[in-house]
Design a protein that fits this description.
Length: 236
């Protein structure tokens, strides 16, 4: 294993028994595509690990949240989970750990700024979680997730309320994940005197999905409309 990856292991707080797993977790498909399969040390890209890591992350976060917020409703738990497993949250953690410095990328991906791309870094973090799980078991994966993804969220306490209730950001994440058109917002009506207006905002996802909601501000109306669309997406 290279000295650089040994440094990375100290950063993430986990020492791999099988260093090839860490290599694979940090290998993007663009690198694998450009290198011959016979090249020593190239065992595959991180796509399958990403798939597994996504499930492990969801399970561990759910388990931890139920333990921490024992009296919370399912809706409250779901909001917190959605925030913690979102691409944005994983991207932020990956940036903190400087995952981008250690990625193996193809030349094209390298030149297009792949080391700082949100989706690529979030995927690499999920692959890393899977690699830790395979190498050290669920307790090792749980410790990593708690240390790097959950601990700061818990420490921030009430400051998280605005984040977990940011339905517009959650809807943006959901449309990206489901490969739907991005949400478009429009103010369709303003009612009442200037000092006490009520706003109606409509959000549309493509041509088929839309919702309208009222609020005492444009922001609150937009958040309510986004929440309604999210609930419809969850029910589909």
């Amino acid at each position: 294993m290279s000295a650089d990856l040994e440094v990375f292991e100290s950063v993430i707080g986990y020492r791999f028994q099988d260093g090839r797993l860490l290599d694979r977790a940090l290998t993007h498909k663009s690198y694998r595509f450009e290198k011959p399969s016979s090249e020593p040390g190239v065992l595959g890209d991180n796509e399958q690990l990403e798939f597994l890591g996504d499930s492990i992350l969801g399970f561990v976060i759910s388990e931890e949240l139920v333990g921490i917020y024992s009296g919370m409703t399912e809706g409250g738990l779901s909001k917190r989970k959605a925030h913690l497993v979102s691409a944005q949250r994983l991207f932020e953690v990956a940036c903190t750990l400087e995952v981008g410095l250690y990625l193996r990328l193809g030349r094209g991906e390298e030149m297009s700024g792949g080391r700082s791309k949100r989706a690529l870094l979030a995927d690499a973090l999920e692959a890393l979680i899977a690699a830790i799980y395979i190498d050290g078991g669920i307790d090792a994966a749980r410790a990593f997730i708690h240390r790097h993804i959950l601990a700061a969220f818990i420490a921030e306490g009430s400051e998280n309320d605005s984040r977990v209730n940011d339905f517009k950001s959650a809807l943006q994440e959901a449309t990206q994940r489901l490969k739907l058109p991005p949400p478009r917002y429009a103010i369709v009506r303003e009612q009442g005197p200037e000092h006490s207006k009520t706003f109606t905002v409509e959000v549309k996802i493509g041509k088929e999905l839309s919702s309208r909601a009222e609020g005492l501000s444009k922001k609150s109306a937009g958040q309510k409309a986004a929440q309604q669309v999210l609930e419809r997406l969850d029910a589909m």
